[in-house]
Each structure stands twice: as structure tokens, then as C-alpha cells.
Design goal:
Elements lengths: L2 E2 L1 E3 L2 E3 L3 E6 L2 E10 L3 H19 L3 H17 L1 H12 L3 H23 L4 E4 L5 E9 L2 E5 L7 H12 L3 E5 L5 H13 L7 E3 L4 H10 L5 E5 L2 H13 L3 E5 L4 E5 L5 H13 L9 E7 H17 L18 H17 L2 E4 L3 E2 L7 E2 L2 E6 L4 H4 L6 E7 L2 H9 L6 E5 L3 H10 L4 E4 L19 E2 L9 H4 E9 L1
Parallel strand pairs: 1-5, 8-9, 8-11, 9-10, 11-12, 13-14, 13-20, 14-19, 18-19, 20-21
Antiparallel strand pairs: 2-3, 4-5, 6-7, 7-23, 12-22, 15-18, 16-17
Helix pairs in contact: 1-7, 2-4, 3-4, 3-6, 4-5, 9-10
The structure holds NADPH dihydro-nicotinamide-adenine-dinucleotide phosphate.
Length: 477
């Protein structure tokens, strides 16, 4: 098997490849991927630093053409890249192709943004002086990504970084290097100058930490766990650098007595269990008012019986495997914790076998949970959901907001009054009405509050807040 190498200063480099294993079939090696060392990472940072002056002054048409070419190639190869994603991460094929299409759309969007860069020219408060306000790229951006969106998250960080004239050192999650390698290869062939985009695959403790420790990295954009996010924050404060964190969630979905039962059940099943519950926007707390509680639990349980857990590539699979053995253990540990805490296991809870060896877990539903239980407070990041019974809307809202996180939230209701009140008072960055808590557009801001996020929003035109710095220039007429 050929080793997929790192890209440093425009050259593919690195010999020893680590196996990328398919979680739907652990006998299958998806590919071999080189591991960058501390020195490789330092070389990548130096290359990005050297490339910055020219790239930051490159024409917007050059940036547009490269980003557009990348978006077009990703779209043209959506089936092949989607299958690669499904094989390395375990998302079902339709979900994986959908994520790949989204990556393409993100490149298309930022190809357009490159042509829309603008500043402001305004009069000074002093006579005969003009003021110009412009945005400039920051410099070298360190991009550190998690395993759960192997192509969309790299796309939504790399595309704006390049669009606004930054150079990049990109470290994907060790578990899922294949899609990252593919998009770096696409961008390299699309004509990026040497050193503008560098790929350093490998361990967070080695490659990621070297990026954190470098005084030459002007900004870090990170998506991942709260623990690693805190390390990024501490190291970045040390270096007086800009940073942006997207971390965990414990997203609530409120179901009110007046909800359309089908809408509520479909949204809850999607929010909690699709993508194997491994979405930061997944809902793992269903907060249900008394009048609809029993009907809702019965209907959701019936729905869960119809969901097929199997190999991600198999037609008809609704839920693929858990990403790896470690995450599977986390999920099953939490299932035991939930039982011990006194929640009632209403459905699932078992690890299951399929034709191919993989990390298969039944969708798991707890009822009679309280909001104080660990399964309601800590992020599990698997297909494990708790139902919390509440008296009325006011208690539902208070329970929804009683969490250290604040990424997304949802409400199922036919009441305009409650939907409007919830949109205004939910302490989350993204609020959904009669929709799953996960599943967002690529052209609008993405991000949360409280323990979920730090720094400016990602995606859409709001991305400029992080990837640029503002300059104010005064000129005597
Ligand atoms: P981790 O924090 O473990 O990893 C995220 C990235 O950080 C990986 O590339 C990892 O490397 C790297 N990393 C690990 N240690 C260090 C270090 N010391 N210095 C620098 N980088 C390091 O999270 P997971 O990948 O396990 O992702 C799951 C978590 O991400 C969940 O908690 C989930 O909620 C959150 N998430 C949040 C999202 C959001 O937008 N809010 C979206 C997606 C996920 P490696 O793993 O290769 O060693």
C-alpha cells in the first residue's frame, strides 16, 4: 500500500504510514498515512510563514479560481470521496456524500467571498483627513480538527483561511486522515503556491502541541473536546494569539404538549441518533412535558425499532458504527452510569454484531432521567439519549438552559408564542423550531455559547471576524 504523505512547503514527504482502519469492518485498512514529527511540524510552520507575505498580497482572482476549482473537483468526486469518508469514519453513505457536497459548497461560497472583500472609506472627525478601514489576513493559521466531520470541518476552516489571505498548517484528527489528505491534494493541484497550505498528519500530543507552542502561529482554529480546547486557549494566551474554539454540547430538545407528534419524533430520532449521535449538535436531552410524554416515548421507541444499525456502506443502513473502540467504551460506560443513576433503559443499550466486524451499538434511549444525572450533564458523543419529564414550558426552558454547554437547542411545538419565546430565551448559539438540533446551512454563522464555544463564529461571512485583523489608516488630503 502506498503511504499518503504530508505536504510541507509544496513537497509530499514522510515514509512511515499508520493504518487508517474502517470502523464498519476492522479487517479493512482504508490506507496508510504518514506521521509528522515535531521537526516536520516546525518545517511546515516555517514554510507557511515564508509563504504569507506573497499570498496575503495575491490577487483576489487567484484565490477565487483556486477555491472554485477545489469546490468543483470535490463536487465532481462526491460519490468517491463520500465512500472514503464512510469507510474511515463510519457515517452512512448518504450522510457521507451529503457532508462531501457541503464541503464543496463551502469552497464555492468562499471562492465568492474572495471577490467580495471590501473595506470602508469614511471621513475623519478632523478636516482634510480620510480614514480607510480594511481587513488583512492574520498570518499563519493553525487548523486542528476532530474526527466526526472528516471533510466538512477541514473545509469550513481551510476555505476562509485561504480566502482572506492567510497561510495554513493543518493537523487533522489522527483517526480520519483520508478525507483531509484528499482535499489538501485537490487544493495543491488547483494551484496553491508552495507553503500556503501544509498538511501535518499525526498525533495531537506531538503535531498539535507543536502548533500550540509555536510563536509563529498567528491564529488557531480548533474543533474538538473541551479538554483540548482549554489547552489551545492557555497556549494561545501565552503567545498573545487569536484563537477560536468549537467544543462539546449537551443540546436540549424540548417537546411540548401541543407538538405535532410525527414532527417531534422525526426531529428527535434525527438529532439523537443519526451520524451515530457523533455530532456536536446532536441532541442527547429530550425535555418533554407531561401531557405528551408517554405518547412521545412510545412513538420514539417504535421509530427506534425501525432504524437499521449496520455497515456504513450497506444500502438501508440508518446508523453506522461508533468511530472506534475507545469511543464505544465511553458510550457503554455511560450506559452503565445511566442505569446506576436510576434512569430507565427504555430501548437498546447493547453492543451488537454484524456480518463485518465493527463497533456497532444499538440506539439507546433512557427515560425517567433527571437533569442532574451525569448522562444529562456530560457529553457522551454516541447514540445515547435521555428523556427528562417536565411539568410545563417554563420548567422545560429552565431545564434546557441548565447546562454548562450552549451550542444548539430545539423545540417541537405548534405554538407561535412558545416558539418565539424559546428562540429569544434559549441560551444556545443555534436554535431550531420543529427541526433537528443538528443539520445547519453552510452560509450562515455556526457556533455556540458558554462551555461550547469561544471566539468569533465560524462559516458564512461571519468567518471574516476570526480570519482577519482590522486596519484603520489615516491620510492627510
Ligand atoms: P479531541 O479534542 O480529542 O481532538 C480534537 C483534535 O485535537 C484532534 O486533531 C486531536 O488530535 C487534537 N489534539 C489532541 N491533543 C492535542 C494537544 N495536546 N494539542 C493540540 N491538539 C491536540 O476531540 P475529538 O477529536 O475526540 O472530537 C470529539 C469532540 O469534539 C467531542 O467532544 C465533540 O463535541 C467535539 N466537537 C465539537 C464540534 C463543534 O463544532 N462544537 C464539532 C465536532 C466535534 P488526535 O486526535 O489526532 O490525537
Amino acid at each position: 500500500m502506498t503511504v499518503h504523505q504530508n505536504l510541507i512547503a509544496g513537497e509530499w514527504t514522510g515514509a512511515n504510514g499508520v493504518e487508517n482502519i474502517n470502523p464498519s469492518d476492522t479487517n479493512e485498512v482504508v490506507g496508510l498515512y504518514a506521521q509528522a514529527s515535531v521537526d516536520d511540524t516546525k518545517a511546515a510552520i516555517a514554510a507557511a510563514k515564508a509563504a504569507f507575505p506573497a499570498w496575503s498580497r495575491s490577487g483576489i482572482w487567484e484565490r477565487h479560481v483556486i477555491l472554485k476549482k477545489a469546490g468543483d473537483e470535490i463536487m465532481a468526486r462526491k460519490d468517491e470521496l463520500g465512500a472514503l469518508l464512510a469507510r474511515e469514519e463510519g457515517k452512512t453513505l448518504p450522510e457521507a456524500i451529503g457532508e462531501t457536497i457541503r464541503a464543496s459548497q463551502i469552497f464555492e461560497f468562499f471562492a465568492g467571498e474572495a471577490l467580495r472583500l471590501a473595506g470602508e472609506v469614511i471621513p475623519s472627525v478632523r478636516p482634510n483627513i480620510g480614514v480607510e478601514i480594511t481587513r488583512e489576513g492574520l498570518g499563519v493559521i493553525g487548523i486542528i480538527t476532530p474526527w466526526n466531520f472528516p471533510i466538512a470541518i477541514p473545509a469550513w476552516k481551510i476555505a476562509p483561511a485561504l480566502c482572506y489571505g492567510n497561510t495554513v498548517v493543518f493537523k487533522p484528527a489522527e483517526l480520519v486522515p483520508a478525507c483531509s489528505w484528499a482535499i489538501v491534494d485537490i487544493l495543491h493541484r488547483a494551484g496553491l503556491p508552495k507553503g500556503v497550505l501544509n498538511l501535518v498528519m499525526g498525533k495531537g500530543s506531538i503535531v498539535g502541541q507543536t502548533i500550540l507552542d509555536s510563536p509563529d502561529v498567528a491564529g488557531i482554529t480548533f474543533t474538538g473536546s473541551t479538554g483540548t480546547g482549554k489547552r489551545v486557549a492557555a497556549a494561545s494566551v501565552e503567545h498573545n494569539r487569536k484563537f477560536q474554539l468549537e467544543m462539546g454540547g449537551k443540546n436540549p430538545m424540548v417537546v411540548l404538549d401541543d407538538a405535532d407528534l410525527n414532527v417531534a419524533v422525526e426531529a428527535a430520532a434525527n438529532s439523537g441518533f443519526f451520524s451515530t449521535g457523533q455530532r456536536c449538535t446532536a441532541s442527547s436531552r429530550l425535555i418533554v412535558t407531561e401531557g405528551i410524554h408517554d405518547k412521545f416515548v412510545a412513538a420514539l421507541t417504535e421509530k427506534l425499532k425501525t432504524l437499521v444499525v449496520d455497515n456504513a456502506l450497506k444500502a438501508g443502513t440508518h446508523i453506522g458504527p461508533v468511530v472506534d473502540e475507545r469511543q464505544l467504551k465511553t458510550d457503554t460506560d455511560y450506559i452503565e452510569i445511566g442505569k446506576k443513576e436510576g434512569a430507565k433503559l427504555a430501548f437498546g443499550g447493547e453492543v451488537i454484531s454484524r456480518d463485518t466486524p465493527g463497533f456497532y451499538l444499538q440506539p439507546t434511549l433512557f427515560t425517567d432521567a433527571t437533569n442532574q444525572m451525569r448522562i444529562s450533564r456530560e457529553e457522551i458523543f454516541g447514540p445515547v439519549v435521555s428523556v427528562i419529564r417536565v411539568k410545563d414550558y417554563d420548567e422545560a426552558l429552565a431545564t434546557a438552559n441548565d447546562t454548562p454547554f450552549g451550542l444548539s437547542s430545539g423545540i417541537a411545538t405548534t405554538s407561535l408564542k412558545h416558539a418565539t419565546h424559546f428562540k429569544r430565551n434559549s441560551e444556545a448559539g443555534m436554535v431550531m423550531v420543529n427541526l433537528p438540533t443538528a443539520g445547519v446551512d453552510f452560509h450562515v454563522p455556526f457556533g455556540g455559547r458558554k462551555g461550547s464555544s469561544y471566539g468569533p463564529r465560524e462559516q458564512g461571512k461571519y468567518a471574516a471576524e476570526f480570519y482577519t485583523t482590522v486596519k484603520t489608516a489615516y491620510t492627510l488630503a
